[in-house]
Amino acid sequence: MCADTLWHIKIGQVMLDTGSILKHDIFSHTVADKPWIAHEWLSEVFMAFCYNLGGLSGVTLVFFVMVSFSMALLFKASQRLSNEWSAFFAIIIAATFAQTHLLVRPHIFTWLFGSIFLYLLIYHDRKLWILPILTAIWGNLHGGVLIGFILQGAFFLGGYLDACSENSFRDWRYHWPKFRRPFFVLLLSLLALGCNPFGYSLLWFPFQVSAEVFSQNITEWKAPDLQEMWYVRVWLIMLAVLIASQGRRIPWAWRLLLVFFVYQALGHIRHLSVAAMFLAPWTAMSIWEIFRKTKLQKHKENEVALSSYSGPLLIGISFLTLCSFSIMQPAWWQNFTAKSFALPDNYSPGVISYLKEHGYPGEHLLNEYNWGGFLLFSLDPPPKVFIDGRADMYGEKVFSDYGRLTYIHPDTEQILSEYNIDWILYPKDSLLIRYMSTKPEWEHVYCDNKVSILSLKRQF
Asked: For residue 441, with 0-12 CB atoms within 10 Å meaning exposed, 13-18 middle and 19 or more buried, which class applies?
């Protein structure tokens, strides 16, 4: 569980209560009433519904099932291009990399829908007409819908280039009947993307959150540290070996996807999971190609005997059973979820109790970035925060000013004055708290082992 999970739930609850989609900010004093593209609005409503029904445990279980089905679909797609053992190995890699971004957040819908797209593109050419419908739904769930177009475009263009390698590029009429269906499906998907409350504004979201100020300060948007994340180096070397072993035999669709996903993975930590997952079918295929002509090749009767239905059925039964416990909330389940689905240790329930009892010591709060979502979720009505996890909405100026306040810039007091900050809620041992505690005009009003609250002394 993370802070972003909490504000997603809070925003979903507001939309459920009001019966309308949020299109402007109502939670901050820094960008109050600023227009906002809530590109994950349907995910947030869904998360709020699950929370209202089964609490944090209910939300977590639902997202766990979505991840499980994503992996199951990727396994089937990988198996289509290889065999069970190769597919199993590729999914182990994908599941390992999924840990880098395995959070209860709307991007899990991109894992699920991307897996469905990949499955249909590999398995069922005649069922591609489903993709525009899925695109319309996906576009309301998460901005990662653009990956759907990357997958479709790569398979369409790659298939055409593969066909042209055997025939002339010039005679397009010869190839047109084979690629007519995927072309029109891709065109319909592009039109379907506009079926959301914000139209094609969704296309700009990836460029907003990848700005330099965000990619340098938000962990998931940073480039992976290849020294620390040694397994990424191993994965890249493995890809290089597989590419070298395949040479010109790699289909063009996978060449295009390899370039795109490896580039994205090297740019942002959050894309490592997507890259390993959506390259899993090619990984399985390449491994199988290496070993099928060697003595390590298994005979058909020695392969793993798998059922197409037992796995999803078991997942479904387990999910329904656990969800029933989340809804009925027996005493033993409450004790279990209190420990298993607790909020992160760096949050303080004591400060929430204090604020509920004594009220807010000011109107213009300066809060730590990750505490924004926690405060919005835990307090009703919540205080007007300085910032929360919606970095794309706050924009580069507010985020930059927040960074300068956090690390004590020469203009710190000027920035505090610009935003009329009259109370600060920050981790107890932070540099900001230590610095502001030296200022005579500020006083401590609350302190525990995790967080301190400073308030500007009132002038009488």
From this structure: exposed
Question: Taking the mean position of all CA atoms in its chain, how far away is CA 198?
Answer: 20
Which of helix, strand or coil describes residue 350?
A: helix
What are the helix and strand counts (H, E) for the chain?
20, 4
Domain residue spans in the chain?
A: 42-313, 349-456
pTM, rounded to two decimals: 0.89
- Who contacts 195 (Cβ-Cβ below 8 Å, separation ≥6)? 136, 139, 140
Do 138 and 145 contact (CB within 8 A), yes or no? yes
Write out the E strands in 84-206.
none
Which one, of 24, 42, 123, lies nearest residue 77 by Cα? 123
Strand order in the sheet with 451-456: 365-367, 423-427, 451-456, 442-447
d(CA 27, CA 7): 10
Minimum mean pLDDT among 213-227, 240-254, 440-454: which range?
Answer: 213-227
Q: Pull the structure tokens for residue 369.
A: 């970035």
